[in-house]
Amino acid sequence: MAPGNPLKAFLATARSTLQAPASQRPSPLTFVVGNESADVDSLCSAVVYAYVRSQAPPRTLHIPLCNLPRADLGLRTEMTAVLQCAGLGPDDLLTLSDLPSSFPSPSASAAPESYELKPADTRWVLVDHNDLTGSLERNGFAAEVVGCVDHHVDENRVRADATPRVIEPCGSCMSLVVDQCRAVWDELTVRDPSADAHLAKLGLAAILLDTVNLSVKEKVKEKDVSAVGYLEARIQRQSRDFNTTAFFDHIWAVKEDISTLSFRDILRKDYKEWHDGAMTLGVSCVVQNLTYLVHRADDSPRAFLAHLDEWSSERRLDIAAVMTTSNPDGEFQRHLLVWGRSPRGAAAVAKFVPLAREKLRLEAWSDAELDQVDRAGTLRFAWRQHELAASRKQVAPLLREAMRSAREGASE
Predict the structure, then answer these.
(1) Per the database record, which ranges form the DHHA2 domain (predicted)?
(2) Looking at CB atoms within 10 Å, which of 64, 192, 345, 364 has the fewest?
(3) Does the global pTM surpass 0.70?
């Protein structure tokens, strides 16, 4: 543990507690976990909330957990950059691969599908999502969710008496975390200010990345602006020459550089998956636009679609969606591609188009060169999305609504 960095020491304590023999671990263990896409907002929100809440009476240790296997953490190059600013590295974080497993994993970095921990011996606080999914849900931990701080659409899966239960629109989940933690954080700063700037940099990075330095006015809420001011003040107490724009520019440049990633890694870097009945939906978020992706595929739309098809086949998707964000010439843009790859997936996409066209203000992308409407059993559209406030947390529920509508229509 590095002297002078209480945040690093806290994460080391969380690790040693989790890795202790079962007979020596406290019970229940309290975890704070973000969503499966494991972006900076999810990862930093978990660390910041866990650290602050662990200092508040009754000083129950909250263990921050990255909701992905350790092997995938390396894809989050922007997270590595953020951690460095806080005197940390990826090895300081805990991932699904670090949970005690019932069966040895084929790879030390892979997340096991079965965990030694019994659900009754755990408590879970969700940040940046309000519906526990994936291997954690399959192992029964969803029944032990006791709190939630989130800015997505309410899935009504977190019980009404959860504490906290904060689910409201905001540019970044971190802004809600800061709002929830502010009183304790203020007291903590008075007692020991040594972790203040490191913690604040984690918080500030998450908000700036999610709101593009507060420039996406359609997303930014008052709590985002308030949180940024609060965090800036804490950093500047220890570093008066700190420049927020330079800080953002550095991290954003790292995030946008996906030039060294394979297409598979690009599509799985920020990926979420949903299952509805017999249908599976996968949504990949990419920090470059469709023009860039086609260019990466030797300027061939067919080659790009082949890469997407390969990934979608690996995940056995009925619907594959790619959502992009980019800033060509300083103009924030969103592109959206939706591909129904099976008859039932195509039926859902057909329902999605009228449902989303006006809400998302969709315009055909590049003369519809990625569209496919004349092949039996599949249906594909690519658009420029002019509703800039609608990120995956708004688009995914529309796709899932279309899936339910298609399923109900097929059963009539």
Answers:
(1) 248-403
(2) 192
(3) yes
Co-location of 228 and 355 in the same domain: no
At residue 194, the pLDDT reads: 84
Question: Do 128 and 241 share a domain, yes or no?
Answer: yes
Compare 85 and 410 and report the one with higher pLDDT. 85
Contact criterion met (CB below 8 Å) for 47 and 202: yes
Given 252, 280, 308, the domain boundary residue is 252
pLDDT of residue 281: 97
E strand segments, 20-121 = 29-33, 62-65
Look at residue 258 and tell me if it is in a domain: no
Contact at 8 Å (CB) between 44 and 202? yes
Tell me, yes or no, whether 382 and 344 share the same domain.
yes
- Domain containing 74: what range? 6-252
Find out whether 14 and 30 touch, Cβ atoms under 8 Å. no
**Which tokens go with 220?**
């930014």
**Are residue 72 and residue 149 in the same domain, yes or no?**
yes
pLDDT (tens digit per residue) in 211-243:
999 998 889 999 999 999 999 999 999 889 999
Give the closest residue to 130 by CA, choosing from 143, 145, 140: 145
Q: What is the DSSP string of 272-307?
A: EEEEETTEEEEEEEESS-HHHHHHHTTT-HHHHHHH
Dihedral sign of CA atoms 88, 393, 49, 134 in order: negative
Closest CA to 112 of 127, 98, 92, 125: 98
Ranges of H-type helices in 164-289:
173-191, 196-211, 222-238, 244-256, 263-269
What letter represents residue 175's amino acid?
S
Calpha distance 310→124 (Å, rounded): 35
3-state class (DSSP) for residue 150 = strand
Last residue of a domain, one of 252, 277, 302: 252
